[in-house]
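SEQUENCE WITH STRUCTURE:
===
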Amino acid sequence: MSDIHLIPGAVASESERQAIDRVIGDHPPARHLLLPALHAAQARAGWISEGALNHICDRLSVPPAEAYGVASFYAMFALTPRPGRSRGRIRGARTGK
């Protein structure tokens, strides 16, 4: 893919990249992997970051506008953190569901 990104400079975290790469694997870039990759990014943190979208676009050779359009169309995906749905850890206890 070209160097056009959804958010220039936005970089996926290591855990986001690993989750996305695990779903995509060694498959050649293909649009049919967009939804599984978005699900993997969402499952990692409870929302899809700009960096995760950039990484998905790079790996799948999908235009950023297309990936954003799909992610923003479905209510199951969040492009910003949702209150009460954090997947962080507080004092060793896992939060969120």
Remarks:
- The longest helix spans residues 34-45.
- The CA atoms of residues 17 and 55 lie 7 Å apart.
